[in-house]
Amino acid sequence: MEAMKETVDQNLREMRDTFASGRTRSVKWRKTQLQAIIEMVKDNEDKMCDVLFQDLGKHRTEAFRDELGFVMRSAETALKCLDKWVVPKKSNLPLLFYPATGKVISEPYGTVLVLSSWNFPISLSLDPMIGAISAGNTVLLKASELSPNTSAFLAKTIPSYLDTKAIKVIEGGPDVATILLQHQWDKIFFTGSPRIGKIIMAAAANHLTPVTLELGGKCPTIIDHHSVSKDMKSVVKRITGAKWGSCSGQACISVDYVLVEQSFASSLVEMLKPVIKSFFGENPKESGSLARIVTKKHFQRLSRLLSDPRVQASIVYGGSMDEEKLYVEPTILLDPPLDSEIMNEEIFGPILPIITLRDIQESIGFIKSKPKPLAIYAFTKDEKLKTRILSETSSGSVTFNDVMIQYMCDALPFGGVGESGMGRYHGKYSFECFSHEKAVMEGSLAMDLEPRYPPWNNFKLTFIRLAFREAYFKLVLLMLGLKK
Ligand SMILES: NC(=O)c1ccc[n+]([C@@H]2O[C@H](COP(=O)([O-])OP(=O)(O)OC[C@H]3O[C@@H](n4cnc5c(N)ncnc54)[C@H](O)[C@@H]3O)[C@@H](O)[C@H]2O)c1
């Protein structure tokens, strides 16, 4: 670990020197790096798909949709929009400040630390990097040790494409992260669990470093079957795709559980079964389209969640497991006990609890009784229910009549609130996430207003009162001695 400390010190020194040289502030440098990320993904598509398969058993198509394609689009958007993003924003100052002018300049924070998680190890590593580079920072990435092939690939390949004095990759687990966190950074961007998020924030507090925490939690999905009965085929396909078709449910924005009215629950189960089969075949273990559980430890965690006899009794579909193959069958639970672990911990796996309510309106109270989720999904055409969801609950995002798609839409900010995180990124929000918005005011020495200065008197007090209200006419009268 002494050697690692020395490596981190040396990397940081080099990154700080590079930032101080001003190189990373140039738009040309930023564009070159963004273009290099696109080239890197294009040149290495096969290798990236291979490491994602080795680490997570992801099908090539899923890997391209959720990681490679996503990253290339993100870099292309940044390339296309960067000239616009970097332009200082002119502020229209009130007449009161005349003839001063104002603007807001986006300046890079400096040296940024990115810590990413294993479930989308390419996109969750490169997408924050794209934001940090767009904003003109130097970046150090530490990907997750739980996706070791991808982490090694990134550590080996990034230096062949990007500016090695400004962009660094270090491999390692919590011990390396701990060393990194002992140093002072200008910004920390973390993707991971709320538990580790607290450690990150505590370490950042030592240096008053700003943090973005992209955390997880349990994302509820409301199905208001009354209003979407005609579209139920699409509803069921979307839920199946989200729960099992993206890293086997090991996704922060996956459907964690579904809320439905009691009368509809068994129909929903019957509708889910054939869709699961149509996606993953009669024997999903042999399906090439179902990612596997990342590690034995995570497999055992899911196994423990299912081992509660009360949870076992709630299984209405699936439930089989194979530790050797790190396989958990797509599984549906009907009304597992609300005090069970599976209903209080983020599931992060291919298990879908369906929770029944007497009336779908009760879903609002149910969600409000839990920590603020990263996403709320609601299949409904009932405008009143939509309004209640938006006004009575809090979450990172709300998506009506779809699932997970909000993540792909870089016109919308992505991030959590409360236990699901803080800060946001994607598209121009990524640029903002890694920029300090510096206020710049250009004053004028051409005139001076005496009421700004002591000695104080009633005239000056009246002047200040009127100035705060921007009561210009009265101010003129006061100055002319026509108002007391
Ligand atoms: N909001 C999002 O965009 C998003 C995306 C993916 C995953 N997640 C969340 O991430 C979690 C799963 O990912 P994970 O298992 O990789 O999370 P994690 O919190 O265990 O690890 C995340 C990162 O933190 C590092 N780390 C682990 N222990 C540490 C310690 N003691 N000190 C400092 N750093 C440490 C890891 O090496 C890794 O790089 C889930 O909660 C999921 O919802 C959120």
TrEMBL record:
Give the superkingdom in one word: Eukaryota
- Please provide the record's keywords in A-Z order: NAD, Oxidoreductase
Which residues are annotated as active site?
A: 214, 252
Q: Where is the Aldehyde dehydrogenase domain?
A: 3-440
What are the recorded Gene Ontology BP terms?
response to abscisic acid; response to water deprivation
Q: Reply yes or no: does the keyword Flavoprotein apply.
A: no
Q: What SUPFAM superfamilies does the database record attribute to this sequence?
A: ALDH-like
GO MF annotation terms: aldehyde dehydrogenase (NAD+) activity
Q: Which InterPro entries match?
A: Ald_DH/histidinol_DH (IPR016161), Ald_DH_C (IPR016163), Ald_DH_N (IPR016162), Aldehyde_DH_dom (IPR015590), Aldehyde_DH_NAD(P) (IPR012394)
Q: What Pfam families is this protein classified in? A: Aldedh
Q: Read off the Gene3D superfamilies from this record.
A: Aldehyde Dehydrogenase, Chain A, domain 1 (3.40.605.10), Aldehyde Dehydrogenase, Chain A, domain 2 (3.40.309.10)
Which catalytic reaction applies to this protein? Answer: an aldehyde + NAD(+) + H2O = a carboxylate + NADH + 2 H(+)
Asked whether the UniProt record includes Transferase among its keywords, one would answer no
Q: Hey, which family's this protein in?
A: Belongs to the aldehyde dehydrogenase family.
The name under which this protein is listed is Aldehyde dehydrogenase
Species this protein is from: Eruca vesicaria subsp. sativa (Garden rocket)
Which taxonomic lineage is given here?
Eukaryota, Viridiplantae, Streptophyta, Embryophyta, Tracheophyta
